[in-house]
Amino acid sequence: MTAVPRGVAPAWLDVSRETLARMDAFLALVEKWQPTINLVAKASLPVAWERHVLDSAQLFEFCPVAARHWVDLGSGGGFPGIIIALLAAETRPELQVTLVESDKRKATFLMQAARQLDLRLNLVKDRAETLSPVFADVMSARALAPLVDICRLAAHHLAPGGIGIFPKGAQAASEVAVARALWQFDATLLPSHTDPAGRIVIMKNLHHA
Questions:
Q1: Most buried of 92, 95, 148, 166, CB within 10 angstroms?
Q2: Max Cα separation, the chain?
Q3: Residue 111 resides in a domain
Q4: pLDDT per position as a tens digit, 129-150
Q5: Is the peptide bond before 80 cis (omega within 30 degrees of 0)?
Q6: Does the reported pTM lie above 0.90?
Q7: Which residues contact 171 (CB under 8 A, 6 or more apart)?
Q8: Who's near 133: CB < 8 A, 6+ residues apart?
Q9: Which DSSP symbol is given to 120?
Q10: pLDDT band at 209 (very low <50, low <70, confident <90, very high)
């Protein structure tokens, strides 16, 4: 797989130059804050455009047309939450995006980034485990926890008929198998555009086994 240069949209990403520029501006903010707050793995910075920005952007294509509320749990450095909000601003302005982050310093970064990018979103400074249900039509969680633990959060926060969009690595199928011991759900595993071994788990109809 050939690396995609920074600031360039691969063939699978249909996005305007303006939004690409805003995505690049956000990555610049991540790089600026990184020495103060560990937002992403240091080793991933040289390939952050593909590893973090594009890896996050690919999730947006699975957002149902009828969805009105996307919730990103454990938003951390803003991947995928900020990227989803940037893409929604261009093509889905009716989509409300909520970022949930309990770490105060990371939450401060997310708030400042949204302000500098003139980005409309909700930021909740709380733990997903203790937060009241947010009734998400779409839920994402990237590098947050094993899928079996994410199921518990999704069951608490998804609206009826809501879906989960969870990027996972090479062990995605194994995580699904472990989660099925405690939960019942429909799952589709789709290939990742940015990680040949990775899979995107689309989860629907979640309830206790």
A1: 166
A2: 46
A3: yes
A4: 999 999 999 999 998 999 999 9
A5: yes
A6: yes
A7: none
A8: 156, 157
A9: -
A10: confident
Domain assignment present for residue 10? The answer is: no
Residue 114 and residue 152: Cα distance in Å, rounded?
29
Tokens of 115: 């302000």
Residue 104: both structure tokens together: 């105060």
C-alpha radius of gyration, the chain, whole number: 16
Q: What are phi and psi of 8, to 5 degrees?
A: -105, 140
CA distance 24 to 7: 6
- pLDDT band of residue 115 (cuts 50, 70, 90) is very high
CATH of the domain at 186: 3.40.50.150
Question: Six-digit token pair at 173?
Answer: 């199928």
Number of helices followed by number of strands (H, E) in the chain? 7, 7
